Amino acid sequence: MSLFQQIASAARHTLLTLVCCVALTTGFRATAQEPSAPAEQPPIQLDTTGYDTSCGIEVVQDGSLIRVTWPLASDRRAQLTFDLTRDRPLLHSAAVSAQDADSFQQIGKAFDPIVQVRVGDRDLQKRGSWTIFFDRMQRKPSEVFRATITQQSATVTSNAQRVTLTIGNITAGPFQGHLRWTFYAGNAFVLQEAVMKTDRQRTAYLYDTGLVCRGTTPRTVAWRDALGEPRSARPDTFAESTNVAVRGRAVAAQFPGGAIGMFPPPHRYFYPLDFCDNLKNVWMGPGFGTPKSPFGFGIRHDPSGDHRYVPWFNAPPDTEQEMGVFLIFSDGSTDQVLQDAARLTRQDRFAKLPGHVTFTSHFHVEHTLDFLQHREAGSFTEIVPSSRKQPQIWKYSLQRPAADWTKPAFDDSQWKSGPGGFGTKGTRGLKFGTEWKTPDIWLRRSFTLTEMPQETLRIVLQHDEDTEIYLNGVLAAQVTGFRPEYRDLPIRPEAMRTLRKGKNILAAHCWNDGGGQGIDVGLGLVAPAGGSIPEPLQIPGFVKVFKRMGVDIVQLAEFHNGRTPKLGARERLEQLTTLHDECLRLSDDQLLLLPGEEPNVHLGGHWISFFPKPVYWVLNRPAGTPFVTSHPQLGRVYHVGSKADVFRLLREENGFAWTAHPRIKGSSGFPDAYRDQLFYQSENFLGGAWKAMPADLSQPRLGSRVLDLLDDMSNWGSKKVAIGEVDVFQIEPEDELYAHMNVNYLRLDKVPRFETGWQPVLDALRSGAFFVTTGEVLIPEFTVNGQASGANAVVKQGRATVKLKLKWTFPLAYAEVITGDGRDIRRQRIDLSQTKAFGDMPLQIEVDVTDQRWLRVEVWDIATNGAFTQTVGLQSD
Questions:
Q1: What 3-state DSSP class applies to 70?
Q2: Strand intervals (E) in 420-455
Q3: Under CATH, what is the fold of the domain 3-35+43-345?
Q4: 40 pLDDT band (50/70/90 cuts)?
């Protein structure tokens, strides 16, 4: 057994003693629950009714102390001691020793875990259910509660070679419950959770947690920065608690007798966002949540997220929310602890698997538009400055003005004045000057030209979201969606003709329906563009990240803005040509980059398109336009203006479509709404895409929304699949992408080359020859009566033999066989508590499939990482 398996087994002790501190944040009201004065405490007797000493983990009570001792490996063991006395640190000591040693080497003593819970109101009106993403929790009032522990009970139970110690009670505002530690024989980590529920209605929440050091103080704290470089600091260098951007989500502290590391469940802890920014999810220093708190370290959430839609976690009434964290204890160094934590996610890489390639989908990096902008724009000099470098004063109104508000003669004397840019603090790319929180804003500003521009004049713009810009009352440009970076746009000729020497008027209207919001405008003189590729786009950040993660194939989802469906053929074909050229240029032996879009037209809801080769199509079809036209260089060009046109295109070019983020966001109600339509039932419509969204820590699996949809689609009758999707926007090397990632392992022997087409990728998806995973759990083999996913298995006498080969990092929790008969769903759960970290094994399951039509399998681990197969059809002999 490796050193990690020794260390990692002892340390999983996520000591979260919930003494949560109150973090005060501007705009939020924090409520501290102070414990009452200690009273005479009757002795607490440990309940061992459900504990079997043969589990290999020793649990002993000695007065007010409970000692848990468990093996890390053949020659090591660890011991954590808890103190049930109310006014003492809950974690009395942590220690490690050789298996045959008489005494333990103490790492440290007197630690108090802390937990703080931030509570706000979920908006259930828009969607009528908890399946919601479009909620901006960061803009609403919220309260932060520090958890209070009252030692009233202690219970120990065992299952296989695992032991759970539960200590109650704990409360944090409207939440109440107990603390739970789970130990794993042969593994060196402990999962500590505050398991709490609330009867409060419409609750969304976040939790932060960690350890404060009331006895032993660490010598140093260590982490990897966002680019992976090792960093460390002494505790005396921290005047206050500091939030740090790290790679790998882990932090470790060096004590005289060893090291303690801490990290969250790698995917479960991160609720869905549009952007995968590294939001400084680690904290360290004194004063976390309250100025009097001693030095500590832990994990935390930024309540503002990416400043767009920030939904937090769901907490439906009476659901047990598992607010967990992992601790690793070692008698070694922080460097070793950080390496051990990284191994649990394979250093945030997706493992190579013989006979498989990794495929990931749905990325709005908008590389093509960036490339076109840089290629066309060249360099520019602002003659009517934006607020990019210096705030510029504008007149503005938050109420709809008269119809002539864009014209030079309009009287704006009653409008307010303020510096640009306008929007909400934290909006990506915005140079904030004046707060704008309403749906609409109207802006006016005069400028003087001493002479007419001789070079190309363009609009300089940063916007979130839809924007109209006017010069002297004439529409100069119109854009939809958002672009965090400043960019330049051409001015319509009719607006250019209004410019004159002397006074002119620049006006803008911006409309926002959610997420971040911002607007800043200027005018600039543009020099001709050079022919070289700008350095940032030569090897874009997202390409570097995917290669680092070991992803083989990436399908983009470009042109994700409301303007795309309205584009004419010339501009649309220029975009597609650039997309295809750039995918070819950026593809190599390490990465195949494939074109894809989220067109969101004609079918209903949002959907992804995917073709086996470059295809040229325009998303509208004006009256009189043929379905197919011929282009002298590109060949066939399709024009789609209806549902029937889209279906015809997919059939003629052997393309596929599937529902993006089904039953949520812009696909709420889909694919259910078109399940009876011909295009859905055809082989060209694959099904829906899976992502862990929304987030609910009471569920033992991720992404139930789409797993349930996969069951429903299978019962509806047409053969469909659930493809893993990620659905994020810009990606850079310092971002926290892995937490939001999943991949599809396609059963292919090799990665196709762009030049010869990628039909094998589409064939694997269509046939269901793949499994989806967060990365930690792998299913190299899966058959039902000898048939793999996507095929049909013959059933005799109502019995099916399911065979799996599994490979994992975190110990497994359970596997589940799901079957359906066209109406109802059956589930058969297999307990996998006998597994340890870093294992592989075959698994055979006998299943009663009488009257069942299909079968699939899910496998989940103790951190709620998981994998699932596609279905196998069942046919009676």
A1: strand
A2: 422-423, 434-435, 440-449
A3: Beta-galactosidase; Chain A, domain 5 (2.70.98)
A4: low
Sign (positive or negative) of CA dihedral 145, 149, 154, 156:
positive
Instruction: Give the C-alpha separation, 88 to 444, whole Å.
Output: 63
Is residue 458 within a helix (H) or strand (E), and if so which, with residue range?
Answer: strand 456-464
- Whether the Cβ atoms of residue 183 and residue 57 lie closer than 8 Å to each other: yes
Concatenate the DSSP letters of all residues of 795-863 into one string.
EBTTEEEEEEEEEESSPEEEEEEEEE-SS-EEEEEEE-TT--SSEEEEEEEEEE-TT--EEEEEEEETT
Where b means 16+ CB within 10 Å and e means fewer, 23-61 reads beeeebebeeeeeeeeeeeeebebebeebeeebbbebeb
What is the number of helices (H) and of strands (E) in the chain?
Answer: 11, 56
Domain ranges of the chain: 3-35+43-345, 382-526, 774-877
- Listed in sequence order, the residues at least 6 apart from 228 whose beta carbon sits closer than 8 Å to its beta carbon are 247
Kindly indicate the confidence band of residue 484, based on its pLDDT and cuts at 50, 70 and 90. confident
Beta strands of 185-276 (E only): which ranges? 188-197, 203-213, 220-224, 230-233, 242-244, 251-255, 258-263
Q: C-alpha 239: how far from its chain's center? A: 32
Tell me the CB-side half-sphere exposure of residue 644, using CA atoms within 13 A: 2
382-526 maps to which CATH number?
A: 2.60.120.260
Distance from C-alpha of 724 to C-alpha of 709, rounded to nearest angstrom = 13
Q: In whole numbers, what is the pLDDT of the chain averaged over residues? A: 93
- pLDDT for res 584: 98
Place of tokens 């990019």: 388
Asked whether 856 and 869 are in contact (CB, 8 A), the reply is yes
Domain 774-877 is in which class? mainly beta
Let me know the angle formed at the C-alpha of 130 by 127 and 133, rounded to the nearest 5 degrees: 70
Q: Select the more confidently predicted residue: 867 or 37.
A: 867
Q: What is the average per-residue pLDDT within 584-595? A: 98
CA angle 175, 180, 182 (to 5 degrees): 150
DSSP result, 290-332: STT--SEEEE---TTTTSS-B--EEE-TT--EEEEEEEEEESS
pLDDT of 514 reads: 76
Q: Which distant-in-sequence residues (6+ apart) come within 8 Å of 585 by Cβ?
A: none
pTM for this structure? 0.89
Average pLDDT over residues 566-585: 97
